[in-house]
Design a protein that fits this description.
The complex is a heterodimer. Chain A has helices at about 1-15, 20-25, 35-55, 80-105, 110-125, and strands at about 60, 65-70, 130, 140. Chain A has five helices and four strands, in the order αααββααββ. Chain A is mainly α. The longest helix of chain A is centred in the middle third of the chain and has 25 residues, at about 80-105. By secondary structure, chain B is mainly alpha-helical. Chain B has helices spanning about 1-25, 30-45. Classes of the chains: A mainly alpha, B mainly alpha.
Chain lengths: ~140, ~70
Amino acid sequence: MRTAIFFTAALAALASLLPAPALGQANLEINTPAIAALQRSMQQRHSQLASLYNSGAVGFTRDGNVALRDAKAVPLAQRQQVNALIASENQDRAALYREIARANGHPEWENDIRATFAQRWISRAQRGWYYQNASGAWVRK
Amino acid sequence: MTMAKLACRAVLLAGALTLVGCVTINIYFPAAAAEKAADRIIDEVWQLKNGAAPKAEEPGTAPGDKK
């Protein structure tokens, strides 16, 4: 009887440890209509943003957004338009991070997802584009 | 008697461990999967899938034009 209790207890303890690493292998769900719509919207905006990345006017922040880095690289007449472009891009990005967290049933993952994206945008960025390093300084890739 | 107490403690400990295990699963953030997901989305947004070369956005001196 006692041995049985011990055995059961040991098994339960073991079983509770096993599933954690197994779950980590799964893919994240990113195929939802909301995420697809955000992706399309960002893809359409990218052609305009790409030339701003190239000129160094806009760079990637360490928190997964884009920001105006060098206003002088943008002609005065276009500054308002560029600011609006940056604002809509950051809105889409915030929604994207939130939607991915929600689609996977973990809204509390939003900041982890944002941090992951922040890293990936920067490491996938082209040479010559600017990003913020860990201390917030702008660095040219 | 002591043996029974010990068994009782073991069961309690196992229960506690199981609970901790559940919590661990719930708060575990799958960093590798998130990176893969991010890369898939970035490929899509930046249209990087069809060719390693950057898009013909820059005033072109690129020798290889894609057809």
